[in-house]
Fold these 2 entries.
Entry 1:
Amino acid sequence: MPDTIFSSFKTVAYEGPASENPLSYRWYDPDRVVNGKPLKDHLRFAVAYWHSLNMQGSDPFGGPTIPRPWFNAGDPIAQAKAKANAAFELFRVLDFPFFCWHDADIAPPADTLAETLKNFHTMVDYLEEKMRSYSTRLLWGTANLFSHPRFMAGASTNPDPEVFAWCAATVKNCLDATKRLGGSNYVLWGGREGYETLLNTDMKQELEQMGRFLTMVVEYKHKIGFKGQILVEPKPKEPTAHQYDFDVATVYSFLKRFNLENEVKLNIEANHALLAGHTFEHEIATAASLNALGSLDINRGDPLLGWDTDQFPNDLWSMTISMIHVIKAGGLNPGGCNFDAKVRRQSFTPEDLIHAHVGGADLCARAFLTAAKIIEDGRLDKIVSDRYAGWKSSDAQAIFSGKKSLDELEKWALDKNINPQPRSGRQEEIENLLVRQIYSDKI
Ligand code: XUL
Ligand code: CO
């Protein structure tokens, strides 16, 4: 194995909550069986190539702070190969079952489309080779259709059809590569699918383009027999102030409009939820209620900053409620938990990156275990089902089955002389139940 900045680290192991070793898992015991499946198959953790291997700590006020030695490794392909060598060593250290990439993360762009695709194919070959000697698999691939200046006015929503065609060619190749590498999903995040000013924007035209593009992606998926899920990742703003894929509800109505709701699911990101004025659990519950939950991008934002800070998660309360909804929705597989998160720019050592993932994995594992316990305990479910118990009566069921109209219901209400009484929502009681389980050492 080539020597990389991660090679000297031992593979992080589960040592339990009492361990003093900072680079061990306290809650993430990959082989612990919960609800008939090992934790690793429920959570399906992935490393995000872009944040962990590419991002160098720049922000709008300062340049790179994080050394990435592979960027000094020679020509662009040699650099990309050195980066891949380090990536697979990082996956080995974390013992994560999955990783995710954008085309531009794994292969250097070039001046022409043909050369860019040639570089991409060279690197997909290389990743395929690496995957033969490491156990980490591909959770999803995606295309970066937002960084290069050609995408400044959007990708599929660009006023220039040649940009649309460039995007079509790129996504076709990314889908082929995702299939070849055994990917479980393919993601589309509409980086610049939005607008800067309405004054130069034909919104109707742009949404038609976006719908046609997604339809073509789904058609191609079937043409090549890719069995993975197609996922759209909502985000309300940043880079543009108005992104078309605002949140789960907006994306779902877009999918309905283009008859894609049975073909495409959602990849929900914690901080994107926050930027939309929601919580992570709200977005997960919304997707679950629409049968559209696909996969999760795990991170957190900073409500005081309001930027997409992509920090590693540490909010057990929100993550536990999120996991309750994930379990109730039947789990994530073939989706997973991708750490779309980056270390802070002062955290420039390889060890910082490992601490970040260890903490994130432990948080998700602890949240998942707590959520499973709460569901198994049954008290929360009972409170909720008692709350809606009235709907089980035959009169109430008749409302649902269309057997009662508005005027019939008026007659029924008057005949019965109904007089509904307030009932407690029991919120504090439920919150106590949750807090006690979150802080319980019986997990
Ligand atoms: C951007 C973001 C992306 C997508 C993939 O905020 O989350 O990294 O996850 O393009
Ligand atoms: Co994301």
Entry 2:
Amino acid sequence: MQAKKIQVQGLVQGVGFRPFIYRIAVSQCLKGWVENNNEGVNILVQGDLKNMNSFIQSIQAEAPEASHISAVKITDTRPGSFKDFFIKKSKDSSEEITEVSPDIAVCDACLQDMKEQPHRIDYPFINCTNCGPRFTIIRDLPYDRPKTSMQAFPMCEKCSAEYSNILDRRFHAQPVACNHCGPVYELHIDGRVVSEFDSIIKTTARLIEKGNIIAMKGLGGFHLACDALNEEAVNKLRINKNRDGKPFAVMFRNIETVKKYTSLTENEEKELLSWRRPIVLLTAEKDLAPGVSVGFNTIGGMLPYLPLHYLLFEQLELDVIVLTSGNIADEPIIIENQQATEFLGPVSDAILLNNRDIYMRADDSIVRIINKKPRLIRRSRSWVPRPVKLKLEVDGILACGAELVNCFCIGKGKQAILSQHIGDLKNAETLEFYTESIGRFKRLFRMEPELVVHDLHPDYLSSRYASGLGLKTIAVQHHHAHIASCMAEYGIDEKVIGISFDGVGLGTDGHIWGGEFMLCDLATFERMTFFDYVPMPGGDQATKEPWRMALSYLIKTYGDEYKKLKLPFLKDIPDDAIAILEQAIKIKLNTPLTSSAGRLFDAVAAISGLCKHASFHAEAPMRLESIIEPGEEDHYAFSIGETINTGPIIEGVCRDVEQGIAVSRISARFHNSVINIIFAAVEKIAAEYGVRKVVMSGGSFQNKYILEHAENGLTNRGFRVYTPVNIPANDGGIALGQLAIAAARRRREQGTEEQGIRNKE
Ligand code: ZN
Ligand code: ZN
Ligand code: FE
């Protein structure tokens, strides 16, 4: 008899790993134990060497889908006297946090059971230890059935036998249920209720095929669905839900179908098929209804992740449906049946409800592969509440985030727990979701904030919320937070060159920043250089009307002479609108100064005639990016002194427009200019300060062309480059940066205190 100690590192907690180890150990007649520890799972096994080897092989080969093994370390040890194999009780209660798993897409074994197990034939709530709802149904810790919204469904005898049998795939699967005892769907249509599942699913399929809109209760909230090839249905959906001009996400039948519509890369395929099943931004090959992608060459696609989705596609003759958040305009995704009936009822042709409550709201997450890495654009379903492991102590800190695509973040020990995507904190409904979620996170993770950190902008609802708590607060500059967010992701705690490009963020000088080069560490920053200030006529209104930024840049560059330029876009702007704007700039009326990169993109998009009015956030930069001519290497001139003079870029763009150069080429040249500015500014700062690590973050780095070229170019120039992967580059990542900055400042303060005490002694 031999014995081995095995340490499995990686993402192995809260994903049914210990019962899995138990099962394979018992099946190989091994004795010993398994336990969770700080770095993963520890195992001691003893028995026959051959069995032990098969056991070790199975660890890697058969691991639960939601787990990720980064290392398996095996050492020989002395056999002990064990009667059997058992799961050691955990000693540490802080471990409970990691037990809150994100939601997991239905697994293959369950899909199989759905065809074979008599009590689960076509059962749309099937799940097991390896899959199913988690975060969205949890009320409190420890994660046990009575503390989830499955509490309302007492297990039948069969389910309960499976639940208690450690050799069963459903051992301690808290949401376990079947046709006899679990939640059920109901289809509400024209005042009728259909409750027989087979006819629910068939009716739903027929309705969608005929161009109707269906509201469906999903995992983290309601969806609205319709035929993605039916332009009339898609347009009706857009009008009904009062949705802005953003593209809609779609769900494809399967990976083969995705390949028909997109040029799928290997990395994209991997993301689509992962247990997290995010929306992945793909390159379109074949058109969906024009109202889905609204002129973009990308498709936000995902694959079925609920049993319901699979069952629906079995009945549907369509290969792809629009599947968009069930909400009205910018309000949070609806999760309650009653609200769905009230608000989604009038905008849909039928509602598919179920009686399992959603406790934690979670939108679909969004990923885009850039430079071969999957970058999170929206971190929500199936990521939350997985903690981000940090190198510094963040306990007791609450970071409130910014305004747009808000997320908040709480600190627990050395872990940061980011909230799900909350949304744009601009209306009462979103604010309510925000405050309610902070309350729930505090309770769920047993965290009482003692230090609150918020954006420098005092008028953000998140900043007001922070001030209203009556606790110690810290205000943090927006772009410093962007950089710190990426530093936290990589565990960087030293001086770096930080590049932060985005739409808007308040600067320490009262102006609106957004094209920033900084020298910073986690606690402090120094602004090195930035895009020349230019007036932002009408303040926020300028973000919706890129023509305003175009005019502002033209006036800054040419003065009154700009009127002599032959720029077609100017003809579309009413003379009086132009006159009012000129006057406003002259007398400095509601024209804050900005260094924003996003606004520069706006200006170029408008001058080149591509986008004068934005129908959704960041439309102009996105359109500009989507038409870049591949292979174009030219760029416009610029100069870097104290600040970055963008005048020559505007001159270059105007010259090209007047000469009738294609917009796609102008776009490429403009993008190349921005990339070259990055190279030049970084070289200059590095030469002066000797710093070789570069961190880039901010919404503009969701631009694939800029990020890829800047990342590769700087790397080739010998810099160590860090860019966001697991944390959004947009304002959804701000809270993590705020948390890290607050922690670093607290550490510094405590350090000086200790120093003071020591000096006294
Ligand atoms: Zn399963
Ligand atoms: Zn049952
Ligand atoms: Fe930002």
